[in-house]
């Protein structure tokens, strides 16, 4: 089995699923994708990274969460062929020895899936918010990881709503996050060992709930704090 994230959470970069599926088929292996950072909004209909990259039907097991794009609730799921699902129902320790997901969460999650299938308005709003924030931060002089430019994907350029603002030093990331909170912008700094040494960052996560005013305010706050700290000119 080849196991991979569909989208990697620290950089927002997308796994090369076509090449992974080709490799699995060559060696008669299965492919498992954790699509927690893609389910509900990545791909034309929000089905995930396998839809974005044209690998529908080529991934054997998909694991994901209800705790992110599908409403932020608890719990998650595994999707696969009935034989694999039956095996997991009998052998998966987290399934056997954990409490079930609450019925209210199940009902809400099913409603979210129906909403996504009926309309892609929220997905398109998220996409526009992401593009606006990335463009504003790039114009302000910030170094943003996870850029799709130059990535050889079999799709048009894709930019994930996880936007890592690269700062390098852990102290800078922590201090910038603290100052931004004073300006009403809540973000988290990440540093070693969560990311590689010298790759400290602030990871921003855009939402369809953000307005253009929210994004403009965030870019302005980032720019003001970065100038105070000498991070950008």
Could you characterize what this model shows?
40% of the residues lie in helices and 15% in strands. The protein is of the alpha/beta class and 233 residues long. The protein folds into 2 domains: 2-118, Aspartate Aminotransferase, domain 2 (3-Layer(aba) Sandwich); 121-229, Alpha-Beta Complex (Aspartate Aminotransferase, domain 1), CATH 3.90.1150. The protein has a 4-stranded mixed beta sheet with strand order 1-2-3-4. Strand 2 (31-34), helix 2 and strand 3 form a beta-alpha-beta unit. The radius of gyration is 19 Å and the shape is globular. The N and C termini lie far apart (48 Å). The relative contact order is 0.12.
What are the low-pLDDT stretches, counting only 5+ consecutive residues below 50? Answer: none
CATH architectural arrangement of the largest domain: 3-Layer(aba) Sandwich
User: What's the CATH topology label of the largest domain?
Assistant: Aspartate Aminotransferase, domain 2
The coarse overall form would be: globular
Proportion in helices: 40-55%
Total number of strands: 8
Spatial order of strands in the largest sheet: 1-2-3-4
Mean pLDDT: 91
Strand content: 15-25%
Could you spell the SSE succession in H and E letters? Answer: EHEHEEHHHHEEHEEH
Classified in CATH, the superfamily of the largest domain is: Type I PLP-dependent aspartate aminotransferase-like (Major domain)
Q: What gap, in angstroms, lies between the N and C termini?
A: 48 Å
- Helix and strand content put the structural class at alpha/beta
The Cα radius of gyration reads: 19 Å
Number of domains: 2
CATH class placement of the largest domain:
Alpha Beta
Q: Helical region count? A: 8
Largest sheet: 4 strands, mixed
